[in-house]
Amino acid sequence: MDFGMYRMRYLERVLAGDRGGCREILSESLQTGTPACTIYTELFWPIMEEIDRLYRGDKIDRITEHMATRINRTLVDQLQSKLPHAYGNGRKIIIVCADDEPEELGAQMCSDLFESEGWEVRFLGGGVPNDEVISMTTGFQPHILFIYGTKPSGAPDVRRLIDSMRAMDSCPGMRIMLSGGVFNRAEGLWEEVGADLFAPTAREALQIALTDRKAKPSSKRRSRRSRLREENIEEVNI
Fold it and tell me: Residue 229 pLDDT > 50, yes or no?
């Protein structure tokens, strides 16, 4: 399947707000026998990223970005039922994101793909206070806390969440993975806020999560975070 051609056609239709045209292209791609998970990673994910790039570059307006994102989410909702469902692999993940529609879409796709691979998923979405995220991890005891699509203004809050979790140590061995948003654009920022893992895409997140060895954060990592807490991250330009 020539995804380059499909992406060009789909991008034109989705930016025009053509819901019917987008559904037709999705139907065509399914008729080729392409697995639903591949359509997630090779069509919807790149289109989502391109829409974000166009909007941040002032190439499209807010209305166009809103329409396109909502069309994508509608079709992803429809496609989710066609994903395969592997036997449970015994691993658990909590997924949270920034509180906006584009970030919710990316996090939802990650949730669908992890669940398809046999993970037990809790998708919290955006706008959840840190104390409630901590409470959820304490009760659910996930192997990974996945934070997707953080905006520049949200980076300090991610650091506070990670620091609080490390200080409480209520979920020993849990790994914290960051993806999307400012962490995709600011090289090394994921390390500066104290995360364990980073993946720029959903496909890479799956690969990293499956191959990563669960390990309690080292004392060296905690020491580094202690030093970082002394800095004023609010004044860092991201």
Answer: no
Helix (H) and strand (E) counts for the chain? Answer: 12, 5
The DSSP output letter for 94 is E
Quick check: helix, strand or coil at residue 97? strand
H or E element in which residue 210 lies: helix 202-211
Residue identified by tokens 């309690």 is: 216
Q: Give the separation between CA 158 and CA 218, rounded to whole angstroms.
A: 19
So where are the chain's domains? 3-80, 92-235
Higher pLDDT, 185 or 226: 185
Distance CA(65)–CA(60), nearest Å, equals: 7
Q: Helix, strand or coil for residue 98? A: coil
Burial 106-125, CB ≥16 within 10 A → b, else e: bbbbbbbbbbbbbbbbbbbe
Query: Is 148 a residue whose pLDDT tops 80?
Result: yes
| Beta partners for residue 197, in sequence order | 177
CATH 3.10.450.710 is right for the domain spanning 92-235: no
pLDDT at site 2: 82
What does the pLDDT read at residue 214?
58
pLDDT surpasses 60 at 5:
yes
Decide which of 2.60.40.10, 3.40.640.10, 3.40.630.30, 1.10.1240.10 is the CATH code for 3-80.
Answer: 1.10.1240.10
